[in-house]
Amino acid sequence: MPKYQHQELKIYNSLSGEKETFQPVTPGMVGMYVCGPTVYNKVHLGNCRTFISFDLVFRYLKHLDYKVRYVRNITDAGHLENDAEEGEDRIAKKARLESLEPMEIVQKYTVDFHTILHTFNNFPPSIEPTATGHIVEQIEIVKSIIDQGLAYVSNGSVYFDVLKYNETEKYGILSGRKVEELIANTRDLTGQTEKKNPQDFALWKKAEPQHIMRWPSPWGIGFPGWHLECTAMSTKYLGDEFDIHGGGMDLKFPHHECEIAQGKAATGKDPVNYWMHANMLTLNGKKMAKSTGNNILPEEIFTGNNPNLSKAYSPAVARFFMLQAHYRSVLDFSDEALQAAEKGFHRLMEAFQTIDSLPTSNSSSFDVEELEQKCFDAMNDDFNSPILIAHLFDATKLINSVKAEKASLTQSDAKKLKQFMSEFIFDVLGIHENLSFSNTDNSDETKLSGLVEMLIELRTKARENKDFDTSDQIRDQLLDMGIELKDTKGKTEFKIK
Ligand code: AMP
Ligand code: ZN
Description:
Elements: E1 10-13, E2 18-21, E3 29-34, H1 45-63, E4 67-72, H2 90-98, H3 102-119, H4 135-147, E5 151-154, E6 157-160, H5 162-168, H6 179-185, E7 201-206, E8 222-224, H7 226-238, E9 242-248, H8 252-267, E10 272-278, E11 281-283, E12 286-287, H9 298-303, H10 315-323, E13 331-333, H11 335-354, H12 368-380, H13 385-403, H14 411-428, H15 444-464, H16 468-480, E14 483-488, E15 491-496
Parallel strand pairs: 3-4, 3-9, 9-10, 11-13
Antiparallel strand pairs: 1-2, 5-6, 6-7, 7-8, 11-12, 14-15
Helix pairs in contact: 2-3, 4-7, 4-8, 7-8, 10-11, 11-13, 12-13, 12-14, 15-16
The structure holds adenosine monophosphate (AMP) and zinc ion (ZN).
């Protein structure tokens, strides 16, 4: 019997503001859509936190034996600089700055995104569609919204008519914003004169001659609005009404609010049953963001190469650090917190590895099944990973007390304990001790400097051992090859001549 029949999963639905018992549209199957990255820059640790949060959701749903179709898009067009209707396309701008084709930018940062998420042991989604691969679908949705009288064409662009929609539906149900307030708060930005009302949003934008990412449409040459791509790709692969839609908290408004309005306007159905929002990772109390530079890159964690860090940390430790907070809580990044996570993680792994060698007896002084159910209960309560980890630490304490012969465990309970701990640590939390960062920079330059650093280390050791023959030999032979070593302030640096 599938596990979900024994467990009652509750999910906090951002739409109702309550934890609701999860019931998928089709029993046994789950459709989940998560907004993917805009691939114009390296992903920072904040982005990773959101994708790790949803990887946890994906993993737990699978662990409950649901058949999950997880769709996560790649935004490779249509996301303008300021999230509003103005500015350059983020990808086109980066292409201009790096003198590359927009699709080279897309490829470069998609590869970076995949590499990093793989390093963190995230599962790939079941389908990973791109916005540029779904222009036709987006145009079809615009057509049906126009047919419903809820969008209008203006100067080659198409806008969603928020006030018209609000006559019969409620715009703002997700974010709790009221249309009247939106009207009062909207500044009169240039370019908004095409719109009937400033709070209307673009479904399709006319491409100015300098806009390089452009496609033909019934309304002229243009490009799709950012909100529209997620409506097109989620409904194409999951249907007009699907189970879970996730994304970072910062996408609630306007992005997800617009998705609800677009879906309802196009099909008459509320597209999503459970809206999930993952909270932000902060640095020095402020949101990590690409635009402000207040962020840490994953590779900086893995190499320790950042002023905020005292040392390097493995991807497993960084993942464990993030999962020690609930996905709906803000998490502040700090070196101390990572150090604490590292200690805790090692304690947990050490205990887990000793289960096989524990002394066994003919009775157990604690109930392993009860402990296992507590782990399920934690995850059933809106994917509460910190509580799950607390129970795993309780198990660690019990293991250590059996080891010290202060508690007892039967052989079959030891087996059960190992089984469920392994499922929760490796399958559900997705943590693996041997998760280490493989440097993706494979250039000869990197290899050469790695080699020289290694020789410098050997030379330092030789000098410490007063083996000056060897240390001089290393220095002189390197010099013959055109590599000069310089000893300054107790450190050795090298220069390739
Ligand atoms: P973007 O590529 O900017 O659209 O961001 C990709 C995902 O990362 C979105 O779901 C954002 O909500 C999320 N995100 C951005 N900044 C942070 C942060 N500081 N902490 C957690 N998630 C974030
Ligand atoms: Zn989206």
